[in-house]
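Dear H.,

Thanks for agreeing to be a second pair of eyes. The structure we're designing against is below in token form, covering all 423 positions.
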């Protein structure tokens, strides 16, 4: 397609999405939930088609030499499709926040005011190689009465088309308004630019992917953007930590699924317990195939042959792989200072039995999610009880942390009177 053809196609999708957003506001919660359940059933029923499409993407990924971690993000199987369908059913069961009255009051002049939660309108989602985002994003936006335009990466184009088709064709007989969920069917980069420039049709863009994608979207977007650039997540093992607990949390945070944004990328160890804990954790990480890149103090304890020298760049690198940077810090203040300097304000965890130390860490670490004695992998909308999530925001305005139904809403003021005029 020519750039002009792409522009016309994307603009048409924007116009259609705006019309769909008006139709969505008329649906009751019961009607939306019926449509969601039909979507979930359609995903399961179309598993063969979805897996066949995913096989095309995986073959192309292998030919292109994508990393093991990237291929894992891309891969679908029966269990992952079932999990997507379960996520949709969980969203159907969740409380619908739209229409809630957040506050109401009466002014001295008799005017009655209500602050009411409403859909945002039309939301563009730009994402890379994880096809489950197609379902997660679409159903969360739909539950909150938002129309969605999805633009996935080329790595998952066949999978995304199959999933979007299942959602659209499964929901239509149950009452899904036309064009409520649209997927841009081509992967030309021009489509991202056109999407970002359609502020007359789109109210919000949410990019999910690497820093280069997010930076490009932010630089082009004419409407608000909710984002996180990186997941530089930390585990800090305090001087009063249970070391077996610290080992389990570190291993889980790093290796349970290293290709995701809430996987740990840096381990910080208090100097007073380093002599005991560093050899213990290095051995445990080695058993999991993790390469450790440590500072001088960490390497001196672990043995230089066991740990690669860390560079300054390692403290700001999101590996998304079986690599972990590690550092010995003097105390809790030094750990907090390191995280606030090098972290990405995503998720950080302290392991300690000292409640005061945990409280200080949770107060002073400037991140969307700050944990005590648990894995960073719990930074997730599903784990928080929100159902599927649209992403994790490291912004501070409107939405922060796992974004789910409430974060996909705005509000408006309803003002009622009986003839008042301003003097």
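And this is the sequence the design step returned. I haven't edited it by hand at all.
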């Amino acid at each position: 397609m020519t750039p002009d053809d792409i522009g016309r196609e994307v603009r048409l999708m924007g116009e259609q999405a705006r019309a769909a957003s008006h139709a969505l506001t008329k649906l009751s919660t019961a009607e939306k939930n019926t449509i969601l359940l039909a979507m979930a059933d359609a995903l399961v029923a179309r598993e063969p088609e979805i897996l066949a499409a995913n096989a095309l993407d995986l073959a192309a990924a292998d030919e292109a030499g994508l990393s093991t971690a990237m291929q894992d993000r891309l891969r679908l199987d029966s269990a992952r499709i079932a999990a997507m369908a379960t996520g949709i059913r969980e969203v159907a069961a969740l409380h619908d926040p739209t229409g809630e009255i957040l506050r109401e009051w009466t002014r001295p002049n008799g005017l009655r005011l209500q602050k009411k939660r409403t859909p945002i309108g039309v939301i563009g989602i730009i994402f890379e190689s994880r096809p489950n985002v197609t379902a997660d994003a679409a159903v969360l936006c739909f539950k909150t009465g938002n129309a969605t335009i999805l633009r996935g990466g080329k790595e998952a184009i066949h999978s995304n088309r199959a999933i979007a088709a299942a959602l659209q064709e499964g929901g239509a007989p149950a009452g899904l308004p036309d064009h409520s969920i649209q997927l841009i069917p081509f992967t030309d980069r021009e489509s991202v630019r056109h999407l970002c420039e359609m502020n007359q049709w789109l109210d919000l863009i949410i990019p999910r992917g690497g820093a280069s994608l997010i930076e490009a979207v932010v630089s082009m977007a004419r409407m608000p953007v909710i984002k996180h650039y990186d997941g530089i997540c930390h585990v800090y093992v305090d001087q009063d930590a249970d070391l077996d607990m610290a080992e389990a949390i570190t291993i889980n945070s790093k290796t349970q699924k290293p290709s995701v944004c809430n996987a740990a990328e840096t381990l910080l160890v208090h100097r007073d317990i380093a002599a005991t804990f560093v050899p213990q954790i290095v051995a445990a990480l080695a058993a999991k195939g993790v390469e450790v890149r440590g500072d001088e103090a960490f390497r001196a304890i672990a043995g230089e042959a066991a740990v690669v020298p860390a560079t300054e760049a390692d403290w700001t690198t999101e590996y998304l792989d079986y690599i972990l940077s590690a550092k010995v810090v003097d105390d809790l203040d030094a750990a907090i200072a390191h995280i606030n300097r090098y972290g990405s304000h995503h998720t950080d965890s302290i392991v300690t039995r000292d409640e005061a130390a945990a409280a200080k860490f949770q107060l002073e670490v400037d991140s969307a999610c700050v944990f005590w004695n648990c894995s960073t992998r719990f930074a997730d909308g599903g784990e928080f009880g929100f159902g599927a999530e649209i992403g994790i925001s490291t912004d501070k305005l409107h939405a922060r942390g796992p974004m789910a139904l409430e974060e996909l809403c705005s509000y408006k003021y309803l003002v009622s009177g009986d003839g008042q005029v301003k003097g």
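Two observations from my side: The mean pLDDT is 94. The two ends are 60 Å apart (CA to CA).

Warmly,
E.
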